[in-house]
Amino acid sequence: MVNPETASKILLDESEMPTQWYNIVADLPVPPPPALHPMTHEPAGPEDFAPLFPMALIEQEVSTKRYIDIPGGVLDVYKLWRPSPLYRARRLEKLLDTPAKIYYKYEGVSPSGSHKTNTSVPQAYYNHQEGITKLTTETGAGQWGSALAFATAQYGMECEVWQVAASHRAKPYRRTMMEIWGASVHASPSELTEFGRQLLAENPDHPGSLGIAISEAVSEAVADPKTRYALGSVLNHVLLHQTIIGEEALLQLAKVGDVPDVLVGCTGGGSNFGGLAFPFLREKLAGKMNPTIRCVEPAACPSLTKGEYRYDFGDTAGLTPLMKMHTLGHDFVPEPIHAGGLRYHGMSPLVSHIYDQGLVEAISIPQTECFAGAIQFARAEGIVPAPEPTHAIAAAVREALAAKEAGEERVILTALCGHGHLDLASYETYLAGTMTDLDLSDDAIAEAMKSVPVLG
Amino acid sequence: MVNPETASKILLDESEMPTQWYNIVADLPVPPPPALHPMTHEPAGPEDFAPLFPMALIEQEVSTKRYIDIPGGVLDVYKLWRPSPLYRARRLEKLLDTPAKIYYKYEGVSPSGSHKTNTSVPQAYYNHQEGITKLTTETGAGQWGSALAFATAQYGMECEVWQVAASHRAKPYRRTMMEIWGASVHASPSELTEFGRQLLAENPDHPGSLGIAISEAVSEAVADPKTRYALGSVLNHVLLHQTIIGEEALLQLAKVGDVPDVLVGCTGGGSNFGGLAFPFLREKLAGKMNPTIRCVEPAACPSLTKGEYRYDFGDTAGLTPLMKMHTLGHDFVPEPIHAGGLRYHGMSPLVSHIYDQGLVEAISIPQTECFAGAIQFARAEGIVPAPEPTHAIAAAVREALAAKEAGEERVILTALCGHGHLDLASYETYLAGTMTDLDLSDDAIAEAMKSVPVLG
């Protein structure tokens, strides 16, 4: 039995693992606005997504059902690392000398080391069920690519990953990890697609970008009826799959009799945040608890706190459906901060809508404060966090110090969505004292916002 | 509750964590031979170890007590990752189409990613209790150095690590990991010691060796009364601390009602193997089970299968007490295989004695077979193993295929003592097809055996 007075980890047995994902759309007071077709600006229908995704995922993308069963073939793979542990950060609390209780849900126990496998596995599963034999995707630093490589290996599928050329050169180990699981990895731009060849003809040393890699992965997927494309964040079905994080955390906190006063999560595309927060938001909307729920974004890419809530494209080239979201403009090129997974011009439409409705708050934090918090965390708790969740940790540290200031025993909940074992170069920079905060001028944002289409 | 029919992971709650280490010396039919003073060749006494280790560890080194209590201050830190999970490798079993059940105890969940923290934490604890404020050590690839850096951070101690210069240059990320936890890391040979200065004067680009790094760490420790030295394997007290692995595994297997028919563990210095195997050997000696227990060593460094059972030095320079162990000669320089943690000329005296008594078996496996097994494992089970436990995995695969051949449902137990997140370059070499098996000639061994002293 868990002893609330002493427990450092609160575990669930496999038999306690949730068997349904939670779809927050069913409980929102106002429904989120639909995606629009990029040309007609009419609401996009299933047929617009069919060349890219299998029907089961398209149905989840537009579903208003409250709970969706997790298939047995997905649960079997989840069991390799789920349920994930919920930690009480007792040694960090002591270091900060705070009366607050700090809990963190740790997703770094997955094979690829982050929460991304929570959605890569069902995405591979549903594609496999519909006879698809290959998935394509893009990856930057490599977190998402490796999560998909692992997932496709579980169902005997092929996986082809276009990795941004600059990362492909700078981070060979993520590529190796994908190859261990059997994926083919190409530097993007590549000679394999028309678009790639065109860019390489102009510049043989093209560094690539996520937008370009998406275009290559998409063009390969639509060209073959047995191939589809997979996306690692932003979309509704991705956030749906991640809700198992929050569902488990609810069960785990119940074991120690605690309810969060404040929940903080880092936001890039929004899937880690949504995964942790949505089940707690359900409880809040039902009047069962009343936590402050807060998004934490990098100061260098502040889509919620400095962007506008507008219809914009998901990709740089403007090929995707238009989604209403908090955006800095699809032309926005974030500074090269270390948290590569948070460098996205927009925000998940679902998180954007919920933020617009005033159901969650948002703050931004500069990266040097994030790494300072991560070093404190690593020395106290042992785990070296990935650069992305250092934002969540820095926010939790702020909350713990505020509780100390107020002399209140607040319960803080956050998610440590991945370990930093493949990101140690970031820490090297921080420890060498050469990491800087990349200031973002309002002018730069105003300039990028010009790329957002004005709808009729 | 654990369901034996479906469980992938068998977990223990913190309240079920063992609170005692097991000392196999108490149960051996014949006591192991003592260490000898390097000069007098008389049995070494506590005073010979006192400049290096705190009294509590020296007492454990020579103890004949069956069980030794784990201090509360150690259990508190263990709880950050212990109890560690026991996995049933169902997906690997299916891939191999074997009737065997494969269980593996996973130690990669520790902050530094291997079993080494099981001993670095108590070593730091006991030193701290005796007023020591700094520990020194050597490290090659960095597994042990990072385990000690983590442990000293937990007790507010300083940590100074001499890392073999070649590794210091080739693997900067392990160094960064140690620095995150607050350790000072020096390339060895260094300008900080007399011995290091001497070697650098001869060759400014000296690549270093473990033997040299040990000499530097030891000389720094003996020069300061508040500083001691810490060793990560080989010695009795180190193996003692690792027995928590096997004690947990016994409890976990009991939950699913299984008893091992065969236990395989990789051996370098012997601490991972001893940690898993000794509690099971106790049960075997007591007639409660009858597993075959097998050491697995690299074909390029086969101290048990090709070395001799003789008194030899633990280090290359011949400064340590003489220990009776299976040795290839302290002058033996193993080939640069990828499993850096298994490149040791000797074997723990305790494992050597038990092997000599016929209580355990030993085999050696070449590294390409090990990596082939690791790739199968990673694709089926997700986790990417460190190069050292690929030997244990390859042996488990051999056993599973033998069980298939025999048509028998054998229960196989092994330990996955660490993840390979910081060893992906090894996999890159394997996947590129450029890894070779480094054959070892009998002549090379005979030559190195000449360095073993002939006792009067």
Quaternary status: homodimer
CATH class of one domain in chain A: Alpha Beta
Number of helices of chain A: 19
Overall, the morphology of chain A is globular
Cα distance, first to last residue of chain A?
60 Å
Mind summarizing the main beta sheet of chain A? 7 strands, mixed
Q: How much β-strand is present in the residues of chain A?
A: 15-25%
Unreliable segments of 5+ consecutive residues of chain A: none
Q: What's the gyration radius of chain A in Å?
A: 21 Å
Identify the most extensive interface between protein chains.
A-B, 47 and 47 residues
Q: Walk across the major sheet of chain A and give the strand order.
A: 1-4-5-15-10-11-14
Describe this structure in a few short sentences.
The structure is a homodimer of 456-residue chains. With 456 residues, chain A is α/β, with parallel strands linked by helices. Chain A is built from 19 helices and 15 strands.
Please provide a written account of the structure.
The structure is a homodimer of 456-residue chains. Chain A is globular and about 60 Å long. Chain A has a domain at 9-19 and 69-113 and 237-449: Rossmann fold (3-Layer(aba) Sandwich). Chain A has a 7-stranded mixed β-sheet with strand order 1-4-5-15-10-11-14, with helices on both faces. In chain A, strands 8-7-6-9 form a 4-stranded parallel β-sheet, sandwiched between helices. A two-stranded antiparallel sheet of chain A has the order 2-3. In chain A, helix 13 (271-285) links the parallel strand 10 and strand 11 (292-298). Chain A is α/β, with parallel strands linked by helices. Chain A starts with 8 loop residues before the first strand and ends in a 7-residue tail after the last helix. In chain A, helix 6 (143-154) runs parallel beside helix 8. Helices cover 40% and strands 16% of the residues of chain A. The longest helix of chain A is centred in the C-terminal third of the chain and has 17 residues, at 390-406.
